[in-house]
Amino acid sequence: MTTISPREECMVLVMGVTGAGKSHFVNKEPPLSLIAYSDVGEDMSVAIVDTPGFDDTVRSDAEVLHEITRFLSTQHQLGIRLKGIIYLQSINEVRMRGSSVRYFEMFQQICGEQAFSNVILLTTMWDRVPESEGRKRQQQLREEFWNTLEDRGSTIAPFDGSAPMAEGFIMQLLAKEDVVLQVQNELDDSRCLLGQTSAGRLVLPNVKHQLEITARELDELDKEISIANSAGRQEERIRYEEKKRDTLKKMKREKRDLEELKTNVHSEAAEKIAKVKKSMWKSGFQVLATVAGLSISIFVNLLPFLGVY
């Protein structure tokens, strides 16, 4: 695994459910977009990466996990140094909703305990709640969900939405040792499939369960169609057939999710890297963006707070 650029390339991930303020933090709208800060120093570039949430209304958890892990495997194989993860949670939520809890469980499995010291947990949207209520909710998050990470070195802090504070948190991570996430170590085994990783094992049972439910729904619909047809109730039969078509589409999506979890992500990323290297020889960030299908924007001298110009 070698870095293909002479510049020192580092990366910080920004994660959290949709609506937590990730795009505001990185000032970039598309999910899984990469902002490369060049000319931070003579030999240093830093990328801040916005990742999609597992509460996506269009893509399934399996699709999102595949996208994130393909990106992480590519980053790791290119030798781009991961400095840490900033995890955002809206303080505006009275309690963590189901998708937030599910996402955070997935997040922990992606990271692994050894990476928790490179995690900063930020609460956002403080302007939408009274300060006393916000402090109460943050303490609740700390006690019910974040205490394990804090015990292993994670930082918990409020985020006021300002650029100086965002820069301060990024600088805090850049000062840390590089980190390799649990899912990256797991995928380094060329035989490991996505569904066999710790994160994948959270998704796989649900995908299989949903497939079983959908199969039973199809059986019931076939029975209803047969009964309606035998009784000459054609309008009823047509309604059931429409439901069956919708259910078949649902099953197709669920089967696709199952296939996503059978992906050898390491090999997939390696093959794409090899193809890109044949056609161009660019910075690691540019190859990463090409392989992962990211949008990439370059900003010059955007991090003067690091003390190098």
Helix proportion: 40-55%
Instruction: Give the domain tally.
Output: 2
Q: Could you spell the SSE succession in H and E letters?
A: EHEEHEHEHEHHHHHHE
For the record, give the distance between the C-alpha atoms at the N and C termini, rounded to a whole number: 30 Å
Shape: globular
Strand order of the largest sheet: 6-5-4-1-3-2-7
- In round numbers, the mean pLDDT is 85
CATH class category of the largest domain: Alpha Beta
* The CATH architecture of the largest domain: 3-Layer(aba) Sandwich
Count of helical stretches: 10
At CATH level 3, the topology of the largest domain is Rossmann fold
- What's the count of strands? 7
The CATH superfamily label of the largest domain reads P-loop containing nucleotide triphosphate hydrolases
Largest sheet: 7 strands, mixed
Coiled coil: 204-271
Keywords: Coiled coil, Hydrolase, Membrane, Transmembrane, Transmembrane helix
Transmembrane segments: 285-306
Protein name: p-loop containing nucleoside triphosphate hydrolase protein
Q: Can you give a write-up of this model?
A:
The chain is of the alpha/beta class and 309 residues long. The chain folds into 2 domains: 8-192 and 265-306, Rossmann fold; 200-260. Helices cover 51% and strands 16% of the residues. The chain has a 7-stranded mixed β-sheet, with helices on both faces. A hairpin with a 2-residue loop joins strand 2 and strand 3 (44-50). It is globular. The model is unreliable at 1-5, 28-32 and 295-309 (pLDDT under 50).
